[in-house]
Structure formats: structure tokens, C-alpha cells
Amino acid sequence: MAAYGLYTHIQANKRRSVALIIGLFLLVYLLVFAGAVLGEGLTSGDPVDVLVRRALSDTAYAAPFATIGTVLWILIAYKFHQSLIDAVTGGREITRTDEPRLYNILENLCISRGITTPKLRLIESDALNAFATGLNDRQYSISVTSGLVSRLSDAELESVLGHELTHIRNGDVRLLVIAVIIAGVISFFAELVFRLLFQGGVRVGSDRSDRKGGGAGVAVLIALALIALAWILSILIRFALSRMREFLADAGSVELTKNPDAMISALRKIEGRGELPGATSAVMEMCIDNPRAGFSNIFDTHPSVDSRVAALVKFAGGHDPGPLQLPEPAQEEKEAESTPAVADAQEKPAEEKPFLPARPPVELGSSGEGEPGPWGPHRR
């Protein structure tokens, strides 16, 4: 599929994402039903069909309270999610005075497209990573690590910021934050139930189960299976929301910066160096690259860097330098102290020689005036 074909799917992806969010709400009600079945199984020894009918009645009674509780949880997260993320990552808001180079790159990108400049946050870490957060224009924020700022050139930083701006522009950030919030409720409830059952020594059924040959044990097994299913589905939904959008964000960055080579070299430098110490899995899912791999790549939240680079080479005309070896930060500091000339060059990334010759501007898409990208219609 051509690059412009990816853009034509942005609206479809948004509709599918909304459907996934609705699915997450349905999982909350599934958990309520599972909790009702579990409660009936733990307190009664009646046959399974009787317990299930009672559980359905309990679910209908509890559904409004579950809805109110979920909405309250979302409102709390809406207000405080950035503070929670900053507490985990150590991020702090910065201004032009703190990081003029980074601030100017972001501001120029936003001015070129007439969009609101999001806030900038800096995470003091040698890791190379960045992510966007927020639920509206007043909250949108882009967090970058100090390692990323020090080890990427201006063109590469511009590509990374363009990637995160595309996530904001496409609505990916808002949907992912909501998904993480709701999935967090499901994960919390599931973990709470399993801890109570397997660490609290809860007794299944009652004495009546022996007299009536009741289905308390079966009801508990059904409830546990439903809770496990809801938990697994919530994880898969979160992965789908993150995974399907990285290619679009890469392409959107190239359309914004007209520099596929910079996006490719940035990904190659970030590759395998993005682990944020102490960050939760939910935070890593928001990053430009998540080095935490799942079982046989099934639970990976991002496509591999190789596949993303291959897409940029094929559809945007970029060139792949292959995996890049970067000196360790300690080695860089030692070399900077011993060779002042090198230190001066490191302080001026804009003068660095690119790994490939300069390329003419790249126009992604050629199917006509009406093909919309995240930054407006494509030109012929």
C-alpha cells in the first residue's frame, strides 16, 4: 500500500479506535457480571443456572454504579494523569530559557502548520525516547529525555517531534490515554480478585453446597475465566491502539519535515536505547519506541524498528544506514574533555555532517488533491 494509502485510513483507524474504546467500557460491565457470579458462588451452593440468573439481576442493579465509578475514574485521570506520569518518569515542564534549541525546533514546526504548540517536558535520563500526553489542546504535552536531546541532531529531533505532533494531530494520544485509564481499572480489579482468592484463603461455597450438590465451584471458575478474559482483551486493545498508529506517525513526520532520512536515522539511534527506568508499561506504550518485547512479539506494543524503517524506505524514498552504534555517554564526556574541538562540535548539532547527502523535499502521496494527510491535503 502506498504511503498516501496509509493516510486515507486515518479516519477509518479513528472510527475503529472509538469502537475499541466502547469495547473497553463493555469489558467493565463484563467484570461487574463476573464479580456478581463470583459473589454468588462464594455465598451460595445453588445450581449454576440459578447462580447465573441471580448474577444477571445483580449486574443490572450494579451497572449504574459501575458507570458512575468509571466516569469518576476518568475525570480524576483527566485532571491528574500528567502529574502521575511526571511522578513516574521524573519529567518537568521546561521553557525556551531552559532548552532554547529544543523549544525553537518544536515552535517552528507548529508555526509552519498553524497548530497550537504543546508544552515541553524534559526527563533526566540517558535513555533515548519521547512521548506525547494529554486529552485536549490545553493539556497536550511532549516529553523527551535528556539523552535524546544530547545525542540527536537538529534534523533528527525535528523528526521525533514531528512524530509526536502527528500522534496529537491524529487523536492517537487522547484515545491511548483513555484506553490506558479504563484498562487500568480492569487490571486493578482483576489483580484484586486474584489476590483475595489465592492469598486470602477465601472459602468457595457454603455448607449447603454439600447438601444440594450445588455449582458454587463451577460458578467461581466461570467468574475467574471471565475476569481473565477481560484482562487479556484490555491488554490486546491497548496494544492495538498503539501498534496500528506508529507507521502513520512516522509518515506524518516525514510529510511535515520533508526529511525521511532524518526520521530513519532517529529511529536507528533510538533502537534498543529507549528503556525508561521505573516507567510503567502504560507509559512505555506511549513512547516513540518501546524496547520491552512480549512473547514471540505477540504482545509488543510497537512494530519493530526494522519494519518502520522498511516502510519509510519503500514509501518515502529514505535510505537505511542500518543499526547505528553510539558511544556510551561516559565515553562521550571523556572525549569532550580531552578534545575541545569535538566538544564544540557536540554543542552545535546543526553543523554535524549528515550520514547521507541532503535530499530534495519529499511529497508523500500522489493520488490527487483530495487525499487528506494529518497536515492537510496532499499536493500533486
Question: Main traits of this protein?
Answer:
380 residues, mainly alpha, Zincin-like, four-stranded mixed β-sheet, two-stranded antiparallel ribbon, 6 strands, 63% helix, 6% strand, elongated, disordered N terminus
Shape: elongated
CATH class of the largest domain: Alpha Beta
Largest sheet: 4 strands, mixed
DSSP strand content: 5-15%
Strand order of the largest sheet: 1-2-4-3
- In CATH, the topology of the largest domain is named Zincin-like
The end-to-end distance, rounded to whole angstroms, is 18 Å
Please compute the radius of gyration using only Cα atoms: 25 Å
Number of E-type strands: 6
> So, the CATH homologous superfamily of the largest domain?
Metalloproteases ("zincins"), catalytic domain
Helix content: 55-70%
User: From the 3D coordinates, which CATH architecture of the largest domain would you assign?
Assistant: 2-Layer Sandwich
Give me the strand/helix succession: HHHEHEEEHHHHHHHHHHHEE
**Alpha-beta content class:** mainly alpha
Number of helices: 15
Mean pLDDT: 81
Domain module count: 2
- Low-confidence spans: 1-6, 208-213, 350-354
